[in-house]
Amino acid sequence: LMSRSDVIVCCAPALPDAKHLFSKNMFAAAKQGAVFVNVGRGSLVDQDALVEYLRNGHLFAAGLDVTDPEPLARDHPLLHMDNVVVTPHIGTCTERTCVLMAEMGLRNLDAGLAGKPLNATVPDS
Fold first, then answer.
1. Which of 20, 58, 76, 89 is catalytic?
2. Using alpha carbons only, what angle is made at residue 80 by residues 78 and 82, rounded to the nearest 5 degrees?
3. Which helix (H) or strand (E) covers residue 55, if one does?
4. How far apart are CA 45 and CA 22, in angstroms?
5. Which of 101, 37, 94, 35 is nearest to 65 (CA)?
6. Dist. CA 84–CA 2, nearest whole Å
7. DSSP codes of every residue in 63-121
8. Which end of the chain has less Cβ packing within 10 Å, N or C?
9. Is pLDDT of 63 > 80?
10. Which H or E element spans position 58?
11. Which among 96, 86, 83 has a CA at the least distance from the CA of 39?
12. Which pLDDT tens digit goes with each residue over 74-117?
């Protein structure tokens, strides 16, 4: 699939066995000139390998809504490449999702203050 895809989109969760799922081997298997997009988790991508494959032209471009770490250091190569767009983890930020997330947070705050179970929690890693 990697070798036939013009656009590769990573939108997976950060599971323990998925660290650097997108590695040198995966980028090497990608179609020449493909675009890589990550809206999942930064830990899923070997960013050194991504930089290498963007620089050597195997990948045409990348769009990253998540990185590892967040934020990247100001001198990180990904922030200075003309073929990379990095957004500050706002891929879900539409008006509707922002309202829904705020409402969920308020429901959790109300529940927590009342000593009730929270409606939405993030599992321990």
1. 89
2. 95
3. helix 47-55
4. 5
5. 37
6. 19
7. EES--SSSSPPTT-GGGG-TTEEE--S-TT-SHHHHHHHHHHHHHHHHHHHTTPPPSS-
8. C
9. yes
10. none
11. 86
12. 999 999 999 999 999 888 889 999 899 899 999 999 999 999 99
Q: Can you tell me which residue has the tokens 């250091």?
A: 73
* Encoded tokens for 51: 């930089």
**Count of alpha carbons within 13 angstroms of residue 124, beta-carbon side:** 0
Using the predicted structure, report yes or no on whether residue 125 has a pLDDT greater than 60.
no
Give catalytic status of residue 89 as yes or no. yes
How long, in residues, is the chain? 125
- If you search the block for the tokens 């013009």, which residue do you land on? 6
Residue type, 118: L
On whether the pTM is more than 0.90, the answer is: no
What sign does the CA torsion over 66, 49, 11, 38 have? positive
Q: What are phi and psi of 71, to 5 degrees?
A: -75, 165
How many C-beta atoms lie closer than 10 Å to residue 17's C-beta? 5
Structure tokens at 43: 């830990």
For tokens 């879900």, the residue is 92
